[in-house]
Amino acid sequence: MSVVIETEQLNKTYKLGSVDVEVLKDVNIAINKGEFVSIMGPSGSGKSTLLYLIGGLDKPTSGNVKVNGKNVAKLKDKDESIMRRRDIGFVFQFYNLIPNLNVEENILMPVLLDGGKIKKYRARLDEILNIVGLEDRRHHTPRELSGGQQQRVAIARGLINNPEIILADEPIGNLDSKTGCEIMQLLKRINKSEGTTIVQVTHSSESADYGNRVIHVRDGRIETDEYK
Fold first, then answer.
1. Is the sign of the CA dihedral 69, 71, 76, 81 positive or negative?
2. CATH number of the domain within which 71 lies
3. CA distance 106 to 135
4. Which domain holds residue 182?
5. Structural domains counted in the chain
6. Checking DSSP bridges between strand 88-92 and strand 165-169, what pairing results, if any?
7. Alpha-carbon span 11 to 187, nearest angstrom
8. Rounded-to-integer distance, Cα 133 and Cα 114, Å
9. Which of 65, 82, 163, 209 could form a disulfide with 72 if both were Cys (CB 3.0 to 4.6 A apart)?
10. Whole-number Å distance between alpha carbons of 209 and 200
11. Residue 34: what are its φ and ψ, rounded to 5°?
12. How many angstroms separate the CA atoms of 43 and 193, rounded?
């Protein structure tokens, strides 16, 4: 298996006034292509910070984050933005949909930001709408959708550029248990059928069970890293 995500002696420190707060301390992980990894830990453990550093949404204080062998921190801003748009799909607890755009338009937003031609993505759009089960909602706006449907749109948006990696931060945190289960089953199917590497942050052991590996973070350090 090829390594698609790697951290080396990764550290992150925030300044709160005159106080340095160490959020991550010497974190070393390697995630292989096609894995479904759950990062767990108590509130304030550094798990979301780790996810944001992997995705290039934050910068490490020291150490390295490599995605497909590229050191994220050393990429030029333009190259880093391209990597985030093309190689990584993001799914957040809050769906971050644009209210006045319909389902299709929200899904295609990364294509527009990347300067792509929409007509070249029509077949991919239809495929993704089928995968997430929203073929009959393509012209609806977010306010016309349930929370679970909105999260499906967010997942579809993350998939439109056919990324190798999906990073999900508490993807079912705002959903009821039944809908949350449906979303996790969807992510599992995507992982299996598309071969997409998925890394999710979750506080739920039930959600973690959908993956094949669980990394526990405590006080900014890797406490355990276990395959299931």
1. positive
2. 3.40.50.300
3. 14
4. 3-227
5. 1
6. parallel
7. 29
8. 25
9. 65
10. 12
11. 85, 0
12. 32
Question: How distant, in Å, are the alpha carbons of 75, 106, 133 from that of 112?
Answer: 22, 10, 23
Judged by DSSP in three states, 122 sits in helix
What CA–CA distance (Å, rounded) separates 187 from 184?
Answer: 5
d(CA 193, CA 187): 10
CA distance 221 to 61: 15
Sheet-wide strand order for 70-71: 19-32, 3-16, 62-67, 70-71
DSSP 18: T
Q: Distances in Å between the alpha carbon of 21 and those of 17, 40, 54, 118, 130?
A: 10, 20, 20, 45, 45
How many whole angstroms separate alpha carbon 170 and alpha carbon 2? 26
Q: What is the pLDDT along the chain (228 residues), one digit of tens a residue?
A: 799 999 999 999 998 888 999 999 999 999 999 999 999 998 889 999 999 999 998 999 999 999 999 999 888 888 888 888 788 999 888 888 999 999 999 999 988 888 888 888 999 999 999 999 999 999 999 999 999 999 999 999 999 988 999 999 999 988 889 989 999 999 999 999 989 999 999 988 999 999 999 999 999 999 999 998
The CA distances from residue 184 to 112, 158, 178, 204, in Å, are 28, 15, 10, 11
| CB distance 10 to 27 below 8 Å | yes
